[in-house]
Design brief:
Elements: E1 7-15, E2 18-20, E3 27-29, H1 33-44, E4 48-52, E5 63-65, E6 68-72, H2 77-96, H3 107-127, E7 128-137, H4 144-151, E8 156-160, H5 168-171, H6 177-184, E9 189-192, H7 195-209, E10 212-214, E11 217-219, E12 225-230, H8 237-245, H9 247-259, E13 265-272, H10 279-291, E14 300-307, H11 314-334, E15 342-345, H12 351-360, E16 363-366, H13 375-383, E17 390-394, E18 407-409, H14 414-426, H15 429-445, H16 448-462
Helix pairs in contact: 1-16, 2-3, 3-4, 6-7, 8-13, 9-12, 10-11, 10-14
Bound molecules: 6-O-phosphono-beta-D-fructofuranose.
Length: 476
């Protein structure tokens, strides 16, 4: 297909699946599961991906990358500030994550959000073939379904929200609550991570927009039916397991442990540096265990990787300073020469290095205050091919619904967290293996390809057939 043609499948996401390498300026696939999930079905249908390439890049003509057609949407510095840093990440993000930080409401941010959503909708309308399927991703683009339907009523439109959808009591603070609900209702199928998010949405539509609803269906006055249902996202299980079994990753895991001084127990946290992730409380819990004499820095270390994120947003800058200070205090007070209590890395790493870290860790600690899913927890499980390793997991992560055998914790309960860290570290091998085996089975059976297929199959059912079906994901 020519790069400027139209397609039977269009993915619309805030970001393209590639970003530019800072050093060489070359495009490379961004880390993250979405591209892995959608790549096969994109290829089978010669799909187009519409998204922001990051930065204020002026060179934004459509291009081919590794068999996919990518159509970049340029954002100005002002739009990045109002739409991305502002409304998406300082209004919606904290509001949808249980107000872990206080959301800011600014009318100028909202105006930029509307402008940019319109631009994405117009681009998708240009690139979709007649009766095509358009799948819109995430909270940055909640108005696109409605805007797109106004332009192209022939399309089959799906929307998937990767982050939690909050209860009515929180959502209704939003001055533009009705517009957002109506924006989403432009889709035929709205996917959420958990059934609770879908139920929150349907309840809000009934209360605030006044449409008739029945279970997970919304009946619109124009005769359309919209379905709101849960589709928990996952990872490419096989790819992670294969990587973790590869010789380079095994070697690297061994050298990581050696570099850490061959401790008995390695705890690991890997997160975007985000206030929803609970990094501060988790490190405090660990440091108290050392102070209490339950753990010993000569034999234990906590490796915390914090990937830089949204660094221009004030709350994220404050968090970075807080974590820097806390790690400094803990290591200053409790570390010994060559034995820091916490090995802190403010950096992002390629998949191979992540797999090596997962292999090197005895206890993976994932303790967000609220998280849509948390794929790090699933990646850890996929990499533990020997069935060993322990997972401490917040009950407020979406993945807790599936990973029932983890040591589940309430991240607000510091003593509970301390007890879980100790239990996980001291568990009998048989107990760890029993739990890990069960979790591995769960993730293996519901991988990311199954997620994409389930969503697109359901979209086919909700929207009455018009004779055009997507080609299914090819099986290897
Ligand atoms: O968790 C939601 C999410 O949008 C992910 O899909 C994405 O990997 C992450 O946040 C990073 O966000 P940003 O695009 O702001 O860097």
């Amino acid at each position: 297909m020519p790069v400027n043609g139209s397609a039977e499948l269009v993915i619309v996401a805030n970001r393209l699946p590639v970003d530019r390498d800072d050093g060489t300026g070359e495009w490379r696939v961004s880390p993250g599961g979405l591209v892995t999930a959608l790549e096969p079905i994109m290829r089978a249908n010669e799909g187009i991906w519409v998204g922001w390439p990051g930065g204020t890049d002026a060179d934004v003509t459509p291009f081919e990358y590794d068999g996919m057609t990518l159509d970049p949407v340029a954002l100005s510095a002002q739009e990045i500030e109002g739409f991305y840093e502002g409304f998406s990440n300082a209004t919606i993000w904290p509001l949808y994550h249980d107000l872990v930080a206080k959301p800011e409401f600014h009318r100028e941010w909202w105006d930029r959000y509307v402008d940019v959503n319109r631009r994405f909708a117009e681009r998708a309308a240009d690139r979709a073939a007649k009766d095509a399927t358009v799948w819109i991703q995430d909270y940055q683009l909640q108005l696109v379904p409605q805007l797109l339907r106004e332009l192209r009523p022939d399309l089959r439109i799906g929307f998937f929200l990767h982050i939690p959808f909050p209860p009515a009591e929180l959502f209704q603070q939003l001055p533009w609550r009705r517009q957002l609900l109506e924006g989403l209702l432009g889709a035929d199928l709205i996917g959420f991570q958990l059934p609770g998010g879908a139920a929150n949405f349907v309840r809000l539509v009934r209360q605030r927009v006044g449409h008739k609803t029945h279970r997970d269906l919304v009946y619109l006055p124009d005769g359309r039916t919209v379905r709101a249902a849960s589709f928990p996202i996952s990872i490419d299980y096989e790819a992670f397991e294969d990587l973790a079994r590869s010789e380079p990753v095994k070697d690297r895991a061994a050298s990581v442990r050696k570099a850490l001084g061959d401790p008995d127990t390695v705890f690991l946290g890997i997160d975007r540096l985000d206030y929803t992730k609970g990094i501060y409380a988790r490190l405090r819990a660990f440091s108290e265990l050392i102070r209490d004499g339950e753990l010993d820095v000569d034999h234990t270390v906590f490796v915390q990787v914090a990937t830089p994120s949204r660094e221009k947003v004030e709350e994220y800058r404050v968090l970075r300073d807080e974590i820097d200070r806390l790690v400094g205090h803990i290591n200053g007070d409790l570390g010994r020469i060559g034995r820091p209590a916490i090995s802190y890395l403010h950096s992002s790493y390629p998949r191979e290095e992540m797999a090596a870290l997962y292999r090197a860790a005895d206890v993976m600690v994932v303790t967000p205050y609220r998280d849509g899913m948390n794929l790090v927890a699933k990646e850890y499980v996929a990499c533990r091919w020997d069935d060993d390793g322990a997972l401490v997991l917040s009950e407020f992560a979406g993945s807790a619904a599936e990973l029932r055998q983890a040591w589940q914790v309430n991240p607000y309960d510091l003593n509970g967290m301390k007890a879980a860290l100790l239990d996980a570290a001291r568990a009998e091998p048989r107990d760890r293996q029993r739990r890990m085996r069960a979790m591995r089975k769960t993730v293996r059976q519901a991988d990311v390809a199954a997620w994409a297929t389930a969503f697109l199959d359901e979209l086919d059912k909700v929207r009455p057939p018009h004779g055009k079906k997507l080609k299914p994901t090819p099986t290897s």
